[in-house]
Structures are given as structure tokens and as C-alpha cells.
Amino acid sequence: MAPITVPAQPGRPPLGALALSAAAGAIAALGQAPWGLWCLAIPALAVLCWRIGTAGPARMAAWHGFAAGLGHFALAMSWIVEPFLVEPETYGWMAPFALVLMAAGGALFWTVPAWIAARLLPGFPRQGMVFAALMVISDWLRGWIFTGLPWALSGHIWIDTPAAQLAAVLGAIGLSGLTMLTAALPLAFWRGGPRQLRGALPGAILAALVIGTAFSAGLARLARPLPADTALTLRLVQPNATQALKWDPYWSEVFFRRLLDISAARDPDRPAPDAIIWPETAVNFLLDRAGSAPEDIADYAGAPVILGIQRSQGTRYFNSLTEFSAQGIGPVYDKFHLVPFGEYTPWGDLMARFGVRAFAAQQGFGYSPGTGPAAIRFGALPPVQPLICYEAIFARHLLGSGDRPGWLLQVTNDAWFGNLSGPWQHLAQARLRAVETGLPLMRAANTGVSAVIDARGQLRATLGLNLAGRIDARLPGALPPTPWSRWGDWPALALAALGLILAARRRS
Predict the structure, then answer these.
(1) Residues that are catalytic
(2) At 361, phi and psi to the nearest 5?
(3) Gap between the Cα atoms of 82 and 84, Å rounded
(4) Number of neighbours of residue 146 by Cβ within 10 angstroms
């Protein structure tokens, strides 16, 4: 009897091929803020779809997906090393591990779509098209799994373009759909073998037309008149408190005095502000130990002050926001979507035994979460939904039309994220929240970028990085509830599912 031979199973692609996939992912990351090179990101993702489409077996496709995702997130989220360098003598050794783990974790959300596409619907070009459709769904899942991290989505490349206005209907996931649609269209109409690159031309032309249509629709929306600004003047105060010095006893007093002096400044030709806004964790004392500080601060500033502050309740600590006025302490909002390992440590009681704590928390071993998103009212201001730092990246937490506020307020301390990309990506996502909801957003950042954002996500005024100063501006008016604020991500997900079905029906 002749011996039975088992066909050799493919291991991984050559390192050179994986390096090209990683390069495609890194080039795609250049579409993110602050670079905004969407014109490079789309071709890079188109090459990746082709690469996945020609990869063959599922294992090989998964390797290419992982390599591309690794390159993408290593560049797009390179700012993740910055928090560990605030206290380098304590946390610096963790920085390279954080970058590798973050990039590898993000890469898994590119790996799984590639594997599924090749496993269930193999063959060129269908395999690459199915991968593109699954990537849209993967972007959505990334906002939920393990508390979620919807950062550097493929759709974020459009935020600084007119095409971002489509988010008013389809949200950030709809923009991811636009990205992957234009990347996959060259495959949809491909004729000939995978090496006959001329076969991509009809789809590439159609992709250009789709982008042009998205830009035209966005420009048309931007051309429509906005509601009139409100009569309320708000002052955003940026103290530029360096993170490494923020909690130093001497420097914290310097920064506190700076907050007070900037708040109390008056321009003879402009009205006094109706309210003043300070950033996240603006002061070095706990709310429950404030004494007469609320009344004293409001009196010195000459207006109510809305500020980020820490508070305690028994053995629990909260990252909070409230108002100081002549009447004392106003309503309190507690941040509820905390940063894992930054503001709380999963399995914290066990980890605390080994000295591991959430390094952003200045009290205890991390924060406790608040009760959830809410619209609150400060004095005579319209109802507002507060967003403390990280919360602004989660569109799913924005209140719908039934309990709709009049504006959004983000207080943040982006000093943790360095100067290159992190603060700019955070600002870009805040702009997207305004587009999705049709609500203006006021943003007070410790070291920048503070900003006034209108209801279509356009920047009215900004105060750049590492500057101390203020922005005085009228609170922009709100638009009626957007389609996205009524329906959420479901229409975009339905379109992604339709795209998946159509791609699956494409003959290989």
C-alpha cells in the first residue's frame, strides 16, 4: 500500500510580503489627524484589499491582516507611549510594551475579518471585497469589546473634509463604510487575473466618483445657514499645566493662580462671560473638602465657574465636573466611562496588593464610575451633556432626541498624550460628535487644544498646544436632531451587511 501523504499546510507569508502589508497599514494611518492624508489612505487600503483578495488560504490572509493592522495602529496610536513618560522613572519601562500590545490588540480587529473572508468566501476578488465589508463591522465592534476603544477608525480619515457631514446621517461607522467602499470598488469591477492591474481601473474611477459625491453632499450641507448663536458668552480657560508638574505642591498653586487670573480678566469692549469653563481635574483639592472655595472662586472670577474636579465618597473616588457659583456647589456629574489601567485597574483589589494602580488617578487606587450619561443644567445655561476626556470618543453615549441637551461640553487633560498626534486625534473625534448630534461642543483642555465647535463640527476658535490663555465666544446654536441621533449606527450597519451580501455573491 502506498503511503498516504498529507499536503503541507502553509505557515506564513514571506517576511517581505508581510512588510509590504505593514507598510500599507502605516500609510493608511496617515489619513488620521494630524496628517489628514486621506488621498494616501484610500490607495493603501485598496492595496490591502487586493492583498487579502490574493492571499489564498485563511491563515495567509490572517497574517496579512495582522501585519497591516500592526503597522496602522503602531503609527496611528503611537501617542500611547506618552502617558508612561510623564513619570519615566516609574513607568517609562512600560512604554514599549504598551505600544506593542496596543498595536497588536488593534491588529486583531483587522486579522479576524481577513481570516473570515478567506475561510468562508475564498477566491479573488471576492475575498478582498468581503474583507472590506467586514472591516466596517469590525470598526463598530471595536467600540464595544472590552469596554471599547473606537480610536483611529477607518472612517476618521474624513473628519477634516466635507465628507464628514455624512456622519449626521450614518455616524462614524458610516464614514468607515465610505472608506472601505472606495477601497474595495476597484475589486468589484475587476476583470482579468489578479496580476492584470488594469482590471482595477473601472472600479477606481467609480471610487473617485463616490468620493466626489460625498464631498459635494458635504459642501451642500455646510452651505446651509446655521441657527443663530445664543446670547450667552462662555469663556474657555486653558492654564497649560504641565502634567509632570501638575500635582507638585508649588506648581499646583502657580497653575491655580493662573486659572483665577485668566478667568478674572476683562476686555473693556466685550461683555463679561456668563460662565467660565475650566478643564478636567483643574484644581488640587477634593470637592468634598472645598470649604468656601466655590463661592470665593466664583466671586474672584466674576462669573460661575464650571470645572473638572476630583471628589471622594467614603473610600471611593470620582473624576467629576460641577459648577462653582455664589450659591456654592452646583449639580455634580461623575465620569462613568473610565480608561482601563489609566483611571481604574481591572481586578483592582487584587492588583493593589502588588502595588499596581491606575496611574492617572491622584487619589486612592483609581476612580469609581458614575451612573451614566446625563443632561444637566448649570444656572441659566441650556441643558448640557458633559463629556470628561475619554468619554468624547464614544458616540454611543450621546443622548438621543428624547432627552436632548442644547450643547455638549468636553473638559479634558490631553497633557497625557504628548504633542504630536494624540491631542489632535482627540479634537477630531470631538468635532465628529458635533456632526453626529447637530449640537455645538465647547472644549476646555488643560494644555490644548481648547476649541469652540459649531453644530456641523467646524472650528470657530481654537487655542493651540502648550499655551496659556482663554477663548471668549458665544455659545453656537443647535441644529434639529440629526438622523443619526434618532437611529444611531443601525442604518450604517445595515448598509455594511448589504455590502457583505453583495460581495459574497460576486463570482471569483
Answers:
(1) 280, 335, 389
(2) -80, 130
(3) 5
(4) 9
Q: What is the DSSP string of 19-84?
A: HHHHHHHHHHHTTSTTT--HHHHHHHHHHHHHHHHTS-SHHHHHHHHHHHHHHHHHHHTGGGGGGG
- Cell readout for 160 is 477634516
pLDDT per residue over 112-147, tens digit each? 999 999 999 999 999 999 999 999 999 999 999 989
CB 33 within 8 A of CB 79: no
The CATH homologous superfamily for domain 233-478 is: Carbon-nitrogen hydrolase (3.60.110.10)
Q: Which helix (H) or strand (E) holds 461?
A: strand 459-463
Residues 6+ apart with CB under 8 A from 151: 76, 77, 393, 425, 429
Closest listed residue to residue 158, CA positions, set 428, 421, 474, 480:
428
- For residue 233 the three cell numbers come to 458668552
**What's the whole-model pTM score?**
0.93
Q: What are the structural domain ranges in the chain?
A: 15-224+488-505, 233-478
Give the chain's length. Answer: 508
Q: How far apart are CA 505 and CA 499, in angstroms?
A: 10
